Automatic annotation (TrEMBL):
Gene3D superfamilies: 3.30.420.40, Winged helix-like DNA-binding domain superfamily/Winged helix DNA-binding domain. Belongs to the ROK (NagC/XylR) family. PROSITE patterns: ROK. InterPro entries: ATPase_NBD, ROK, ROK_cs, WH-like_DNA-bd_sf, WH_DNA-bd_sf. The lineage of its organism: Bacteria, Bacillati, Actinomycetota, Actinomycetes, Micrococcales. It comes from the Bacteria. It holds the Pfam family ROK. This is ROK family protein.
Length: 403
């Protein structure tokens, strides 16, 4: 339990820096209210951050009565991070400030199965980093679909990308001469939810993405659950149908093989609803236009998804489920069958679990990867390894340079 508590404090320290960066100086009482944590915890967090030289005490705030409150502010604003989201066919980039706010972004086409995929990715990242100010960056975070045993090492196994034991972290560090942390993309997105989204209001959250694949990130007691080797949350490979279609993982009947975008497109092509050169956009357009066959494909996916997610909710008992990903662009066609299937399969005590559907934005995934870097200086559990130490050194050096 102590490890989980330290991880939660780590995220809260990052959230304090993010709030001060985004909104300017604030009192301890204001931070406690805004971040929804106890005044005692804010007192301890601010004490630690002051001791580390990351924040400073400023002038006293005006008060309508009682003792004036001292304001806290950032010791340095001139730092940031780059986040990279890798998908099978594109790469999204963002640069964020210490407050997590996106300063610039870009998207480039990418072919993950090309023999030169990693070389091309490295060139794309180098180009994006070079356009900014590399000297002010704390590091680069990379989120991708797959398993990463240790963020700091960044060795990737990914069925979606077709990668096996790719030492991406080492390759990027050597090319960029910057600290690099690599993580499963849904775990990275869950970090962003903790810092900037729904996660600020809850301690136990199930973040679920649906699109090319199906993934989940579990926040328990405020801490990301990674599992033995970083592979926790592989919801897309829950077996759903014993005689189902072949999944890219090599098994049959996985949830992803039935409701992933490729599966829906294949279903539509099999009944000649769309052509061989058409994809999910055309299928969604047909459903939007009232085509019953297209709507039935989404409804069937929604029903299957609802029952599978009910199993996860029954097992994990989250306070809230957050749904997002490319698939939510067609959510109006998933929702009716999904809602009925989910609620009917939940045990009675969990039927009221709220499900929040967030608008899909590619740069939010990349922001999550950048958030990994922002949280790394407070990585008391050592998930980021040597990279955590290097990020912290750069943060302290930036403060010393401005003091």
């Amino acid at each position: 339990m102590a490890t989980v508590q330290r991880s939660q404090a780590d995220v809260n320290r990052t959230a304090v820096l993010a709030h001060l960066g985004a909104h300017g100086p604030a009192s301890r009482a204001e931070l406690a209210r805004t971040l929804d944590v106890s005044p005692a915890l804010i007192t301890q967090l601010s004490k630690d951050l002051l001791a580390d030289g990351l924040i400073v005490e400023l002038q006293e705030a005006t008060s309508s009565g009682g003792r004036p409150a001292r304001l806290l502010g950032l010791a340095s604003r001139d730092v940031g991070a780059v986040g990279v989201k890798v998908a099978p066919d594109h790469v999204a980039f963002v640069e964020v400030g210490i407050d997590g706010v996106v300063k610039r972004s870009d998207v480039k086409p990418f072919d993950a199965v090309s023999p030169l995929a990693t070389s091309h990715l490295i060139d794309l990242v180098k180009t994006f980093v070079a356009v900014g100010e590399p000297a002010r960056l704390l590091g680069v975070g990379v989120g991708l679909p797959g398993t990463v045993a240790q963020q700091g090492l960044g060795i990737v196994d990914s069925t979606q990308l077709g990668w096996n034991q790719v030492p991406l972290g080492e390759q990027l560090r050597r090319a960029l001469q910057l600290p690099v942390v690599v993580e499963n993309n849904v775990n990275a997105l869950s970090v962003a939810e903790q810092l900037f989204g729904q996660g600020r209001e809850f301690d136990d959250i199930l973040v679920v993405t649906v699109g090319n694949g199906v993934g989940a990130g579990l926040i328990a007691d405020g801490s990301i659950v990674r599992g033995r080797a970083g592979g926790a949350g592989d919801l897309g490979h829950v077996p759903v149908r014993e005689d189902g279609p072949l999944c890219q993982c090599g098994n049959r009947g996985c949830l992803e093989a039935i409701i992933g975008q490729s599966a829906l497109v294949n279903d539509a092509r099999s009944i000649r609803l769309i052509g061989a050169d058409e994809g999910i956009d055309e299928l969604r357009a047909l459903a939007d236009g009232g085509n019953e066959e297209a709507r039935e494909i989404f409804a069937h996916a929604g029903h299957t998804f609802g029952r599978a997610l009910a199993g996860a909710v029954n097992l994990l008992d989250p306070e809230v489920v957050v749904l997002l990903g490319e698939g939510v662009q067609a959510w109006s066609h998933w929702a009716p069958a999904f809602d009925q299937a989910l609620r009917s399969a939940l045990v009675p005590g969990k039927r009221g679990t709220p499900v929040v559907v967030e608008t899909w934005q590619d740069d939010r995934w990349a922001q999550g990867a950048a958030a990994l870097v922002l949280a790394t200086p407070f990585d008391s559990d050592g998930v980021a390894g040597e990279q955590g130490r290097l990020v912290r050194e750069r943060l302290v050096a930036s403060i010393e340079a401005t003091s």
